[in-house]
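Example record used in the benchmark description.
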Amino acid sequence: MSSSDAFSITNFSRDSAADQPKVYQWILHPVIDLLFCCGGFVWILFFAFAVLGLTTSLDSIPQAMLWTAWIVGVHFFANAHSAAAWQRVFFDKEIIQQSGRYILFCTILCALLIPASLCFDWAAGWIVRIYSVILVKHFVMQSYGVVLIYCMKRNYTLSKTERHITLAVFHATLYFVVARLLSSPEYAGTQFFNVDIPSCNVCPQWLFTVVLCGFVATVLVFAAMVLRRYLKSNELFPLPGLLLVFTTVCIYFMKISNDPTFGILLSAYYHGAQNIAVIMSYEIKKSGLPKDMPVDKIITQVWTKRYISYFFSLAAVGVVLFVVLPRLASAFLGVNQDLAIVTALVCFGTHHILTEAVAWRLRDPRVRKLMI
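Model output (structure tokens):
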């Protein structure tokens, strides 16, 4: 979801949330939400990856478990959530009518990036570098939108000032990561899965320090805002939202966030799983719950044949685009397989980022109603 759309949904009053026939405080289920929407599983992976020093290999049972989590996350969350957005972008009549030209422009642009990346090494490197920046924005702003969803679900109405402060935390996180990418070659890296990427050390150290101070100050202001409201009105910021803010701020503050292997895990279990959970909830509500089923039993529908098939169909599309096509390109066009995989990842990924903003417009009443 785009930041502007996510920001706009908080303009609705507390009464608008109360008008809903029944609002479930969780997206799917407390355990699912805490693990896959609020970052809980990310911290489990962080402990295994950074604290225990495990790697994605088959040398031991714990490392094999992490490798399995990596494979499952890539195919069933990271790749599948892109397919879910494309389903709406290309098959929802209202979206096509409202944003068809924009979608066509994005499709042509990303189609042109593919041969450029495959034919010119320098182009591939720059595409990866630019993608790494817009990807961070995509991740943190989706999390901002999910925080707002939890606020609306729990009838925690944000004032205009509180909205600005909450949004500022995510913007500050984004600016901090970008400033570090542009000031620290060590953090930015020089390769992405064997594809050389250019160094872009253009941010002076003093500017990075200013951004860092602003980042820390913004987080402290947010914490003070939450505490002040609790002390003044006995209203606590929704716990899932707080956990998501904590995960976003802490994970991106640590340098491990830009490790290629851990970055894929973040894409799967911080972003992709979060997205899949929201989309599953949306699709189930859109189709309608069984008669007399309370909304807090929505998780039971996820395990039905219909939604298991839906989930696996999304994963299948992801496998075709991100696994099969690169290998076919390598086999029949003679391009380097690593380059083909990276090209698919960044070019299809860029298209997903650009078009998802119109796939989930929270200012759209029909989307917002099903999201909440």
